[in-house]
Amino acid sequence: MAFDSLSAFIAMEGHGPYVWTCYGVFFVLMIGLMVWSRHRRSAMMEACRRNYERQDQGRQREARPAATFTRVEVSQD
Amino acid sequence: MWQLFHKLGSPKWFYGIATRLMPWLLVGGALLLLAGIVWGLAFAPKDYLQGNSYRIIFIHVPTAFLAQSVYIMMAVAAVVTLVWRMKLADVFVKAVAPVGLVLTFLALFTGAIWGKPTWGTWWIWDARLTSMLILLFLYGGVIALDRAINDEKSAARAVAVLVLVGVVNIPIIKYSVEWWNTLHQPATFKLTEKPSMPAEMWVPLLLSILGLYLIFGWLACLRMQTEIIAREQRTRWVKDLVMAGRY
C-alpha cells in the first residue's frame, strides 16, 4: 500500500480531485458505452421479432382460401 | 487459408464465434483492468516528480493507446472493404467508430486533467494534443459520413476512403513527441527498450492496457452482432435466432 490511511488515499496529497475526476469519468463513460451497446442489441432483436410476427400474421391471412370450388355436373345425354 | 478468409467473411459464422468469445473477453477484460487500476491507484509507488497525479496514467495511456490502435484496425478493415468488398470489414468499421470516439475523448479528457497539476494548464496547442484532437474529429467524421449516406454500399466505400486518408494522422501522433519539442512526455512503452519506470509502475499499466483491449474486443463483438442482425434480418438464420429468443 502506498498510503498510510484511507483519507490519505482519497486526498492523494492534494491531487485527489484530479485523479478521482479522471477515474470517475472513465468508469461512467465506459460502463455507459457498454450498457448502451448491450441495450442496442436487445432493442434490435426485439424490433426484428415484432417485424417477423407481423409478417407471419399477414401470411396466415393470405393462406385462407379465397373461394370454394364446386363441381358442376352437366348431363351428357 | 482462402477457406478461412471466406469463413471470416460470413456474418453467420462470425456471430456464433462472437457469442462464444464474449463472456471470456468481458470477464478477462474486467479482471485485468480492475487489477491494473487498483494496483496502480493504491499500491504503485508515487512518482518522485509528479507526485500522485501521475496515477492518472493507468487510464490515460490505455485509452490513448486503444484510441490509436482502434483507428489502425479500422484502416486495415477499410483496405479489406475496398479491395475484397468483404461485408464484415465494413460492419467492423461501423461498429467500432463510436467506441474509438469515446476512447479518444477519454484520452484527451484525462490528459487535460493531468495537465493542470503537472504543466499548469488544461490545454495547449502542442503537437501531440492537437493531433489527438484531429483523431477525435476523424472518428466523428467517420460516424457522420456513414449516417449521411443511405445506400449501404456507397456508405461503406466513402467511409473506407475517409478512414484511409485519416491514417496519416497516426504516425504524426506517434512521433509528435520526437519530431517537435512538445510539452507532452515521450512514450512510456517502446518495443525496443526497457521501460524507464520501475516494474511496480509498468506492470499495472500493462495489465490495464490488456484489460481495456479485451473490453474493446467485447464491445466490438457486441456492436458487430447488432449491425449484423440489422443487415441480415431478411435471412433465415437471423429469423431463427431472433425467434428462439436467446439474447
Architecture overview:
- The complex is a heterodimer of chains A (77) and B (247).
- With 77 residues, chain A is an all-alpha fold.
- Chain A is built from two helices and no strands.
- The model of chain A has no long low-confidence stretch (mean pLDDT 84).
- Chain B is globular, with a radius of gyration of 20 Å.
- Chain B starts with a helix and ends with a helix.
- The interface between A and B is large, with 31 and 42 residues.
What do the pLDDT scores of chain A average to? 84
Helix content of chain B: over 70%
What would the average pLDDT of chain B be, to the nearest integer?
88
CATH class of chain B: Mainly Alpha
Structural class of chain A: mainly alpha
Global structural class of chain B:
mainly alpha
Seen as an oligomer or otherwise, the chain set is heterodimer
**Coarse morphology of chain A:** rod-shaped
| Strand composition percent of chain A | under 5%
* Measured distance between first and last alpha carbons of chain A: 113 Å
Count of helix runs of chain A? 2
**Spans where pLDDT lies below 50 across 5 or more residues of chain B:** none
Using the CA coordinates, give the radius of gyration of chain B: 20 Å
What are the SSEs and their pairings?
The complex is a heterodimer of chains A (77) and B (247).
Chain A lengths: L5 H6 L4 H48 L14
Chain B lengths: L1 H7 L2 H33 L13 H28 L2 H33 L7 H22 L3 H15 L2 H11 L19 H33 L4 H9 L3
Helix pairs in contact in B: 2-8, 3-4, 3-6, 3-8, 4-5, 4-8, 5-6, 5-7
TL;DR of this structure?
Chain A is built from two helices and no strands. Chain A has 77 residues and is mainly α.
Descriptors for this entry?
heterodimer, A: 77 residues, mainly alpha, 2 helices, 70% helix, rod-shaped, B: 247 residues, Four Helix Bundle (Hemerythrin (Met), subunit A), 0% strand
